[in-house]
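The instructor's notes for this session suggest beginning with a concrete chain rather than abstract definitions. Hand out the sequence below and ask the class to guess, before any prediction is shown, which regions might be ordered.
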Amino acid sequence: MPQPNPPPTPHRQPAHTLAPEAATGGAALAVGVVRHALIVATFCCSIALALTLGGKGPWDQNLVYSLAIGMVSWAVIEAGRITLARHEAGMWPRGWRGIALVAAGTVTGFGAGTALGDLWCQCSTWARWQATPGALATVLVITTLATVAASFFFYSRGTARALQARIALTERDAAEARLKLLETQLEPHMLFNTLANLRVLIALDPARAQAMLDHLIAYLRATLTASRATHHPLADEFDRLRDYLELMAVRMGPRLHYALDLPEALRQVPVPPLLLQPLVENAIRHGLEPQVAGGHISVRASVQPGAHSTPSAPATQYLVLEVSDTGVGLGHNARPTPGTTAPAASTHFGLAQVRERLATLHGSAGTLDLIAASAGGTSASVRFPLKIQHP
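After discussion, reveal the predicted structure:
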């Protein structure tokens, strides 16, 4: 019995959508052929059992003829399907070619399979058909119905797989588009805040404003290329945070101290650009700035094992990114320093951006938690499944 796949649909990657076993190489194709053969053999055994229970002959003969006819029909159709797939977009021939292929497989399987069964059983099916009126028509009907039923089963199965692949690809494209939209919203948000601070600093300290403007130009130049990608290495994310913190240090002076801790093994982990930027910005605007003495910001990356981890079956590892500050802490009512107003909407915007990007990429596995430190200050912790990429 054949294993047809659905006709190709208009898509940018039809081969991957409709025939993943063909798209991934000869080994995957061979595995698929073996799997199809086992399914067909099981189907043939079921037909032999049904014929035996219906009083249509002994089990051994029914099994031999059913396997011979079914496997020959499947082999012809499978070989034709794979051959024609090299010249067409999908793995199942379109239009009349598909119908002709099934018909050829049915006729060839009926003739050659019957001959093989006669050879094995040392008998003449033709003589038996001549002695039994209607026997030939019965066998032809059974063979045709079995082939059509198996073809429909495999075709429906292939159609479902193709639809699942298309849905997954569409969801991935939508997620990428959503991430780019979120990032385009986030970058102007950071830029507007920086320009507002620069405007205040121009009147108070022109020299520091000039230095801040130089840092801003360097920061924007460095981030222009990276912002066009959906992911970049964690090392690049930390470099951009360092640029931003240096930019803020020009304005805040000795009131801002920071430390970045990135283990060497995690430098190539892919993360969305500007993932930690809103958390660092919130730590400065709502933690350190309302505090006269300023404070310290630390950003660190680490790995945590998931739950239910055992030596034989290790659980998924999670990347944890923590942004901690020694500022006023959560729920504090202190006002920001003059000229640096920080409305609550700004905080909500940044945190909502981070949460939405994590949900888009990792679903419920990506989380953002805010924790009030016992000694004062706030810790924001981002957690999602770890994927390490080696350079």
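Then share the key points. The radius of gyration is 34 Å. The chain has eleven helices and seven strands.
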